[in-house]
Amino acid sequence: MAALALLLCGGAGNAHAAADCSITAVSVNFGAYDPVVASPDDSVGTVTVTCRHLSGGAQRVNYSVTLSNGMNGTSPSTRKLAAGTARLGYNVFTDPARTQVWGNGTGGTVIASGAVTIGPGVGNGTKTFVHTVYGRIPQLQDAAPGTYNDTLVLTLTF
């Protein structure tokens, strides 16, 4: 059996004169992987985008969140968890059906995005959006025992 974790690290965004946005993540933790189970190992994490008003009037802020290929993959379709030299294929998705690979918008991948109006008189001047990260390790992979992990870099653009 292998204990599996996917770590998400925040990236930097672009500064907006009247608004500032930040990103935080809660890792996807798959737990123990059993290579003889005939169903995929699914888990979820979250990515939270928080935008706050800095100055001026109300304004609309559009944002997007992209994910890197990970430390052990060359594209979003080849993401791998690693335990030493052992590898275990996995991926992360934007939808609960796990059909839309979360990446950088190229090669058939999608990005998470949103829009928010912030400013004086609009709530408390801070808006938060939570995006669910749907993780999946395909079934019946020959996995050596160990603790597997990978790191994806999130990039927030606004």
Short description:
This protein has about 160 residues and is an all-beta fold. It has strands at about 1-10, 20-25, 30-35, 40-55, 60-65, 80-85, 85-90, 90-95, 110-120, 125-135, 145-155.
How would you sum up this structure, described in words?
- The chain starts with a strand and ends with a strand.
- It contains no helices and eleven strands.
- The strands form three sheets. A five-stranded mixed β-sheet has the order 3-1-11-5-9, with no helix packed on it. Strands 2-4-10-8 form a four-stranded antiparallel β-sheet, with no helix packed on it.
- It is 0% helix and 54% strand.
Order of helices and strands: EEEEEEEEEEE
Q: Output the CATH class name.
A: Mainly Beta
Number of structural units classed as domains: 1
- Computed over alpha carbons, the radius of gyration is 18 Å
Query: Span between N and C termini?
Result: 41 Å
The CATH superfamily label reads Fimbrial-type adhesion domain
Q: Tally of extended strands?
A: 11
Helix and strand content put the structural class at: mainly beta
- The average pLDDT value, as a whole number, equals 87
Principal-axis shape equals elongated
Query: Sheet bearing the most strands, described?
Result: 5 strands, mixed
Neighbour order of strands in the largest sheet = 3-1-11-5-9
